[in-house]
From TrEMBL:
This is YxjI. Belongs to the LOR family. InterPro entries: LOR, LOR_sf, Tubby-like_C. It holds the Pfam family LOR. SUPFAM superfamilies: Tubby C-terminal domain-like.
Length: 157
């Protein structure tokens, strides 16, 4: 399953549309005004599904993941000198590859690829392609990619 993650160009807050391979919108992500990033995820019908919320006042960036009101886990940037690295406390997953250049893989605890994430280089807005192993992982992969994207946006500003 492939999902295309496109940032809206003219938006005051973080705002994204996520499309399937047929070009149909399957998720909408809207940023809320808050201390740190707070991204609400809705399905194609506008029903709330989950939140990626930055934990403020931490030494390194940390993002909590929620499905509805249920806490699922978190993603935290690890202290490194050269390449960004993230510790994932969720589903037994890890992030491998070159996060700096947006070419990475999300793996389960056995090392099997759950998703491949690549950034399209020549586009006006940030656009990512997520190749996901199973449809039931799509929302969780999206949450993880949103957390990494939010951290990169914060560190660039």
């Amino acid at each position: 399953m492939k999902l295309l993650f496109k940032q809206r160009i003219f938006s005051w807050l973080d705002s994204y549309d996520i499309y399937n391979e047929q070009g149909e919108k399957v998720y909408t992500v809207k940023g809320e005004l808050a201390w740190g990033h707070c991204l609400k995820i809705m399905d194609q019908y506008g029903q709330y599904l989950g939140t990626v919320k930055e934990k403020v006042l931490t030494f390194l960036p940390k993002f909590e993941l929620y499905a509805g009101e249920q806490y699922l886990g978190c993603v935290q940037k690890e202290f490194t000198f050269f390449k960004p690295k993230f510790v994932v406390d969720f589903n037994g997953w890890s992030v491998q590859g070159n996060v700096w250049e947006w070419d990475y893989e999300i793996q389960d605890q056995t090392g099997r690829a759950v998703a491949l994430v690549n950034k399209e280089v020549f586009s006006l807005a940030d656009t990512y392609v997520m190749e996901i192993d199973r449809p039931e992982n799509a929302l969780y992969v999206l949450m993880l990619v949103l957390a990494i994207d939010a951290e990169k946006c914060s560190s660039q500003s």
